Amino acid sequence: MLVAMLGLGWGFMNNDPKPKVEDEKMNEFIDSLINEMTIEEKAGQLTLYTSGWDVTGPVLRDDYMDELRAGRAGNLFNAHTVDYAINLQKIAVEETRLGIPLLFGLDVIHGYKTTFPIPLAEAASWDLEVIEKTAHLYSKEAASAGINWTYNPMVDIARDPRWGRIAEGSGEDPYLGGLIGAAKVRGIQGMDLSDPTTILACVKHFAAYGASQAGRDYHTVDMSDRELRQNYLPPYKVALDAGATTVMTSFNEVDGVPASGNKYLMTEILRNEWGFDGFVVTDYTSINEMVPHGVVANLKEAAELAFNAGVQMDMQGGVYSQYIPELIAEGKIKEATLDEYVRQVLEMKYKLGLFEDPYRYLNKEREQKTLYSKELMDHALLAAKESIVLLKNEPAKGQSEQLLPLKKSLKSVALIGPLADNQKDMLGTWHVAGDETKVVTLIDGIKQTAPNVKINYARGADFNGDDRSGFAEAITAAKKSDVVIMAIGEDYTQSGEAASRSEIGLPGPQQALIEEIHALGKPVVAVVMAGRPLTIEWIDENIPAVMNAWHLGTMSGPAIAQTLFGDHNPAGKLTITFPKNVGQIPVYYNMKNTGRPFDANNKYTSKYLDVSNEPLYPFGYGKSYTSFDYSGIELSSTNMEMNGSITVSATIKNTGKYAGKEVVQFYIRDLVGSVTRPVKELKGFEKISLAPGESKKVSFTVTVKDLEFYTRDMSYKAEPGDFKVFIGPSSAEGLEADFTLK
Ligand code: NOJ
């Protein structure tokens, strides 16, 4: 075994369990290793196969064990649990010629076993500390089960809720999306990769995957370089600046070239402009997919295009392993580049400490202690509560007080809907290893939270088809109850990868069910759980209280119940616009004004005949059980120098009767630019807590960095002129003031 021969094997390194990673030592070690490797073994280090344990895409081969033994598969994904992975690592270490340990990847997107809210939900917390801690905890849990690499964070900006993968990102805003991506990278990777509770992060999907046309997954992306750089690339960059070590390509094309063969993205931007020095992995078989894309005639050409574009690792496609030796022999790719790519992969293995101890992530005792530990479950509850967005809260018919929170002294509630007593769907999309039997359902959450309230439960309807045979039971349950809670929305398969929908209303007969329940005249609370914004205009118009509870993971039930019954005051704010109907899409807050902005009195302005331009709920929107008043916007100066700064502040007062949290948002509008500018751009926010009657002054500092953009000649800078600033509770409301950049 070469590593042992070099005196740098596990035995030697084990004398010091946590050696500092010194670059020189690492380089020397990796140089010697590369010198020993055949071309096939080098290609093997650039190869990643899914194990038979789980699959997250099309399966092309089942012979990965032979490849592994031959040193032609240097990395595996979808192999987890210590028991399962340890044998695979043993094969790599003991049976391959050079004994190079494997990387074990997994889509730990919002949890390994303990499942946290889906990313779009957690983004609604606007709480970077909570988000970072969540990422740290699920990485720690996954790390205890043998995983040392996760394909997370996904920072794709998305403006089309038909796209099922909107669930996996942070929504529509590049500024917030970047901050959340960076928080996740910090949480996943920690300060020291050789700490076995930290793993490699992977920023994905590079690039612009969220802009697939008509929200259809894997579809064409076509946008200007200006739009790409202004709105889509920044979150990837910010997440990389936070230290992310790997990047995943996207399935889509950008300017006619599929991302996995796109040199502009993978080399010019990622390496040359941004200085990225980790490695790039394809998204699944996206090298192979360049054949049906129609930019290459066969897999060999695909391998050549991807390799020369700057893609280091081939996930699942097997084309690098198959064609790199031939391509080198034919001089179509360079061995020096191959060595460089192999180095980038081996460096990560080294930094994780795998050469020092390949079993460092494979400790059964640690795994047993970590899975579903109290620390994880407590935080899963907290994160779930912070993710809930209260969309509407009015008095029920004939009442004077807002319907929520419900009183624990209520005699009975009807709990109706397919998500009321449901474990699996609460986990949401991409819950790779999440165990549904650990999920606390809404019905159990209510029993724990309000034990004296009698629950009359009826499933009522399903997520698909039009079977209404359960309606009668639901109506009976509603009739004998004081209040009705409707637990409605999507099942976990209705969002996520390959789960685009062309209509995004309540699926199946649920809309008909809620209309029949509403007709009974009882007070109704709608708890909407889904992986995307749903077009729930009828609900907004007819149901007095509406809560968006996404898919919140293992602790969904208690989180929702505690919020319904007032143990928790909701403070989530949407990070994605909710359209009124599909025809409005794309509808997002940071749009352009157009030359004919909306004017109700002028036919020839930008609008629809059949729906307003306003969305159902705007970006940044979310209510609380208390109320907040915004007043006294002030600027430290109405003039700002290019190298100076100004402060903008306002006072926020809790004018209601509950203690509550508020996400105070700060937006800027550049009134005149050399190119058109958005009507508003988020530039800051602060989540504050206020007791009833309490007020707080919140300040935001503006520097020239906040005003920069891609100008007409594509230089990134601020232009002198007039700006508006807004401080408010959402992108659609707030106080405004003006200043001039000199
Ligand atoms: C395809 C998905 O697009 C990507 O996000 C995921 O990481 C890989 N499959 C691996 O499962």
From TrEMBL:
InterPro entries assigned: Cellulose_Degrad_GH3, Fn3-like, GH, Glyco_hydro_3_AS, Glyco_hydro_3_C, Glyco_hydro_3_C_sf, Glyco_hydro_3_N, Glyco_hydro_3_N_sf
Keyword Cell cycle: no
Pfam families on file: Fn3-like (PF14310), Glyco_hydro_3 (PF00933), Glyco_hydro_3_C (PF01915)
Entry EC number(s): 3.2.1.21
GO biological process terms on file: glucan catabolic process
Gene3D superfamilies (UniProt xref): Glycoside hydrolase family 3 C-terminal domain (3.40.50.1700), Glycoside hydrolase, family 3, N-terminal domain (3.20.20.300), Immunoglobulins (2.60.40.10)
Catalytic function, reaction form: Hydrolysis of terminal, non-reducing beta-D-glucosyl residues with release of beta-D-glucose
Residues in Fibronectin type III-like domain copies: 662-731
Keyword Transferase: no
Keyword line: Glycosidase, Hydrolase, Signal
Domain of life: Bacteria
Top EC class, one word: hydrolase
GO terms, molecular function: beta-glucosidase activity
Family that this chain belongs to: Belongs to the glycosyl hydrolase 3 family.
Official protein name in the record: beta-glucosidase
Originating species: Roseivirga pacifica
